[in-house]
Amino acid sequence: MKNILITGGAGFIGSHVVRLFVSKYPECRIVNLDKLTYAGNLLNLKDIEDRPNYGFVKGDIADGPFVFALFEKHAFDAVVHLAAESHVDRSIANPMEFVHANVNGTVNLLNAARKHWEGSFDKTRFFHVSTDEVYGSLGADGLFTETSPYDPRSPYSASKAASDHFVRAYFHTYGLPVIISNCSNNYGPNQFPEKLIPLFIHNIIQQKPLPVYGKGENVRDWLYVEDHAHAIDLILREGGVGQTYNIGGHNEWKNIDLIRLLCKIMDKKLGRPEGTSVNLVSYVRDRAGHDQRYAIDASKLQQELGWKPSLVFEEGLERTVDWYLGNKDWLEQVITREYLNYYREQYENR
Ligand code: NAD
Ligand code: DAU
To answer: Full-prediction pTM beyond 0.85?
Structure first.
């Protein structure tokens, strides 16, 4: 593969994937297509923006003529598709934006790939990056496997499930060479502070309340973002066409236990007496339709392609905290008026 389109490369996971590909494949041209929504940030890629094999294009994946012209111009032979609206709480407030980006945007990219790759499907790949949330919510036992039934329960996960269905439909109907991955919760540097870990890091720095939804007993399976980026690289190179791979950290944490650990690390790093940050915990109204538990069985990826996570959680979390504390200018830059309005709407009187 010589010309690779990465969508959503200015976002959290996308920026780590772009950095990995630009550094690892100097012989390939990497084009990052991103609309630069509130979640997209070119600062995430400052260190690699001048590399000769990297280019950035601002645009909307749902814009038909624009995406078709981009394929014409660059003759992509692989797409790694990450662009999406990604935050569950925003999807509850504004579902249509999720249909636009996640459903229309994905189908538009599939159409462009199908048209431009006609006759050369054997030399191309369309990699769709999806989420474990499409499988719904687990009880106390069990893990999501690649054959778990789809049962999305938020507008976000419904839009991602719809996009997965379209990707599979283009494989079965037109023979488009697709691969899908479904990953668990990512954490690490550059994550926008609307998601649990960076939001709580920011609030702890500011000594603001830590809004725990419900009783804090929901469970998530956390994976360091660079481990996800390496899995995407491996699956793109060695994964089977038409296949799905689950990616997860085998690292389940009840929210409140994770928050206690985070508070402890932050107290230490900030030189505050132990117990300072945990006193900021404030139990608030639960998220509507809050999925109880996610947990991934990643044994297919491990057995077939030899992938496993590289970091233990305590180390990854400490590394993440260090990054946010060392990059306060990044944090300040993303705390815009838009963010403050969002925060007010989401958390005031909750
Ligand atoms: P993010 O919100 O940090 O970044 C999304 C990026 O997509 C942003 O740069 C944004 O500007 C861009 N974008 C949004 N709409 C666009 C459009 N219409 N056209 C072009 N660009 C657009 O998201 P993330 O957390 O990095 O997630 C990336 C992908 O990985 C998503 O598809 C998400 O569903 C999936 N995923 C995320 C996680 C996670 O824990 N964050 C886990 C599994 C899968
Ligand atoms: O599982 C993969 C998914 O993980 C991705 O597909 C999504 O893009 C990503 O946002 C993430 O979804 P979650 O809803 O699990 O992540 P979030 O960080 O929003 O919430 C994690 C848990 O923390 C969840 O149980 C809700 C809870 N929470 C979250 C926030 C923002 C709180 O208790 N308080 C909060 O303020």
So the answer is: yes
